Structure formats: structure tokens, C-alpha cells
UniProtKB/TrEMBL annotation:
CDD domains: HATPase, HisKA
Keyword Kinase attached: yes
UniProt name for this protein: histidine kinase
Domain Histidine kinase: from-to ranges: 208-422
Length: 429
């Protein structure tokens, strides 16, 4: 088993490493494609910018006054004219670049072929930064003003970060999916080994339990038959109750043997359309008689109508009896109430007790197999922690749901909901 686990871990590690390598290769390809697309967009934007700055218009007129240092046309200083033209040109370039899908930070400068400096952007990058430069040779109006060949240099820094941001739609989901795969695989492996351990424990438990229970059940049944011969009229109801509980215990033993099948399939369930009303009535009457003998208070309210459901009656009865037993066992002076009602095309069976209640931590695990509520390091009630796990499986296989409401010191309320069927489906499988 340890060898098999090591093989799984090695295969999993290789698979994860392979995924990271593939992701890295895809990232490199994506960066190259982003660079190609960026250069393509720069060329397209350069053509538009070059065309717009080649003719005389309000912007080129303002820039022309700035680069020729002619402030006579404006009622402000030459510095103000140059500052204004710098900002207007910056906004113009930002708009034209954005129109072609380029939204990263940039700066610019206008220089001539002989390196004469004319104008720069409001924001200038540090010379120590890695800068990518894209020159645009200006023609027409502006070049004619200074009688020189002017070049508009667009400058971009940290261009790789920009490329990566463009790939976020690819890289971030990929990383999320890889992380999800890792978590799922780890969880599956953990569950696999946990389940194997549980299966071994379950098989050992079932074998031991059935051998231990069958002998005393047979002996009690034999003793009951002997008692029947000499029973008085007052003793007869008690003997009847004992016989009923022996039959019920035999049923429990059979259902424990079927518990292993519940783990893998629903083959042990033969759901048939039945009227569950008589079954529910019988459960309540038997538990009421038992409660009187044990000085517990039990009340029940049942709807005066037929309750057609698809069920495996023995399993469903065992589940309800299990919940009633729990309500009695976990209460010092038991006061239990069962309420059955029909609403939203479902049969709701609610069992309320005045017991000690269940903590929030325990509620999250109460339906897990072998889990039992403890007080400190002690189990207050003897058991194997199978009851509620069995109940949940039974209700699930009846296409129903189970709801738990409980607070420490305020008792517990458990509701099961089973879908109703139409009367014409009665008796159908």
C-alpha cells in the first residue's frame, strides 16, 4: 500500500511539473505573439499620427509656434505656449494609441535628424529605465516650419509587464485551473486512502457485530415464547412489545449486513409506491408504548390522509425509528414530539426533542460515518456512530433531504422530506 502511494505521488508530481512546463511554453508563445501584435498596432498608430500631424490644424499650429519659439501670436509667455503644446500633443498621442489598442504608459520627444531638441512630453522616463523607442518621421507642415526633417520618438518602458498584463486572460485562468487540479488530485488521493481504511474497518465491524448479536437475539426470542405460555393479561402487552422489538432488532441486523452495499450502489433499495400512512401510525404507536415504559413523554401529530411515496418501507421505518431512539437516548427527561405534514408535494416528518443539543462544530460532522458527539474525551451514550450515517443514506436513496436544527442546551429538531407521488403510481416500482 505504501509502495502504491509513493507511485501515485511520483506520477502526480511529474504531471504537475509537466503542466508548469507546458504553461511556461505557452506563456513564451503568448509573449511573442503579444510583441508582434504590439508592433503591428504601433505601425498602424504611427501612420495615423503621421497623417494628422502633416497638415496645418489647431494642434500643429500650436506645436509649430512652440518649436519655432514664436510667442507673438499669444498673449502668454513662450514657456506657457510650449507647456500647452506639450500637453495637447500628449493627449492627442494617447487618444490615437488607445484607438489602436495601446494603453500602456509612454513619453515622447520631437527632435531633428541633426539631434536638435524641440519638444518633449510632460512625463519623461528616467534614463536608467529600459526604454523601447519607436520613431515616426514627420512630413509636411511641421518639417516645413523649421526646414528640417523632424522625428517624433514614442518611448515605452517596462514593455514586458504590459505584454504580461495583456495575457492575464490566459495566464490567470490557467494558474487557477492548475491550482484546482492540484487541490482536487490531493483530495482524491486522500479520500481514496481514507475510504480504503474505512472499508476494511466496516467489514471487520459487520462480521463481529452480526456474530455477537444473532446469539442473544435468538435467546431472547426463545425466552419470550416460553413466557407467553404462562403470561397474564397484564403481561401480554409487554410480551407483545418485546416480540416487536426483537423483530425490529433482527431487521437492524439484516440492514447492517446491507450497509456495505449502500456504499457503492442503490441495489438494496427496491422503491415501490406505497401508502406510508399506516407505517407511520404503527411506528408512533410502538414508540409511544415504549416511551411509557421508560417514563418518557412522546406526542405525535399525523395528517388524516393517505401518504403516497416511493419507498423501501423497512429502511425508511428503521431510519425514523433511529431518529426517535436518538431523541430519547440523548435527553435526560425526554420530551419528544413527531409531526408529519404535507406541503410542497412532499412529506415532511419532524422530530423535536428537549435534549442537550448539538454544537456548531459537531453539526458539520454529525452525519459522517463513525463520528460520535463527545463530552470532553468521553462518549456519554454507547454506540458505533453509524446511526445518523445510515439515516442520511436511506433518505438520500429515497430522493429526500434531511435538515438539522440544534443548539447546545436547547434541544434538537430533525426534519426529513420525502417526495410524494400521485395516487395512480401506488404499487408501482
Amino acid at each position: 500500500m505504501i509502495k502504491g502511494r509513493n507511485i501515485y505521488i511520483i506520477l502526480f508530481s511529474i504531471a504537475v511539473l509537466g503542466l508548469f512546463i507546458v504553461q511556461y511554453q505557452y506563456l513564451k508563445i503568448g509573449l511573442n505573439l503579444a510583441k508582434v501584435q504590439f508592433n503591428k498596432n504601433i505601425v498602424a498608430a504611427s501612420q495615423v499620427i503621421k497623417s494628422d500631424l502633416s497638415t496645418e490644424n489647431e494642434l500643429t499650429f500650436l506645436i509649430g509656434k512652440s518649436i519655432t519659439k514664436d510667442g507673438t501670436y499669444f498673449a502668454v509667455s513662450l514657456d506657457s505656449v510650449q507647456d500647452a503644446s506639450s500637453h495637447f500633443l500628449n493627449d492627442f498621442l494617447k487618444d490615437r494609441l488607445a484607438a489602436k489598442g495601446i494603453t500602456t504608459n509612454f513619453s515622447y520627444q520631437i527632435i531633428s535628424k541633426d539631434s536638435t531638441y524641440y519638444l518633449h512630453s510632460p512625463k519623461v522616463f528616467d534614463a536608467k529605465e529600459k526604454i523601447n523607442t519607436y520613431p515616426i518621421e514627420l512630413e509636411g507642415y511641421l518639417s516645413g516650419l523649421v526646414d528640417k526633417r523632424l522625428v517624433l520618438e514614442l518611448q515605452f518602458n517596462d514593455i514586458n509587464t504590459y505584454f504580461l498584463s495583456q495575457l492575464n486572460g490566459l495566464t490567470i485562468p490557467s494558474l487557477i485551473f492548475m491550482l484546482t487540479i492540484i487541490i482536487v488530485v490531493v483530495w482524491v488521493l486522500k479520500s481514496f486512502y481514507w475510504q480504503r481504511k474505512i472499508i476494511v474497518t466496516t467489514n471487520e465491524f459487520i462480521n463481529n457485530l452480526t456474530h455477537e448479536l444473532k446469539t442473544p437475539v435468538f435467546s431472547i426470542g426463545l425466552a419470550t415464547k416460553l413466557l407467553e405460555k404462562d403470561s397474564t393479561e397484564q403481561q401480554e402487552p409487554i410480551i407483545v412489545l418485546i416480540r416487536q422489538q426483537i423483530d425490529r432488532l433482527k431487521n437492524h441486523i439484516d440492514k447492517v449486513l446491507e450497509l456495505g452495499s449502500l456504499e457503492s450502489s442503490r441495489s438494496v433499495f427496491n422503491l415501490k409506491g406505497i401508502d406510508f400512512s399506516p407505517n407511520l401510525q404503527r411506528i408512533c404507536e410502538e414508540f409511544s408504548m415504549l416511551s411509557k415504559l421508560e417514563e418518557a413523554i412522546f406526542n405525535y401529530e399525523l395528517p388524516n390522509q393517505e401518504l403516497f411515496i416511493k419507498a423501501e418501507s423497512s429502511h425508511l421505518e428503521n431510519a425514523i425509528n433511529n431518529l426517535l431512539d436518538n431523541a430519547k437516548k440523548y435527553s435526560k427527561n425526554p420530551e419528544i414530539k413527531l409531526v408529519a405534514e404535507v406541503k410542497q408535494k412532499k412529506l415532511f416528518i419532524t422530530i423535536i426533542d428537549n435534549g442537550e443539543g448539538i454544537s456548531k462544530k459537531d453539526k458539520a460532522r454529525i452525519f459522517q460515518k463513525y463520528y460520535r458527539v463527545t463530552e470532553g474525551d468521553l462518549y456519554k451514550v454507547k454506540g458505533y456512530g453509524l446511526g445518523l450515517s445510515y439515516v442520511k443514506k436511506v433518505i438520500k436513496n429515497h430522493n429526500g433531504k434531511i435538515y438539522l436544527e440544534s443548539e447546545l442546551g436547547k434541544g434538537t429538531k430533525i426534519t426529513i422530506a420525502i417526495p410524494l407521488i400521485n395516487s395512480y403510481e401506488f404499487g408501482q416500482a
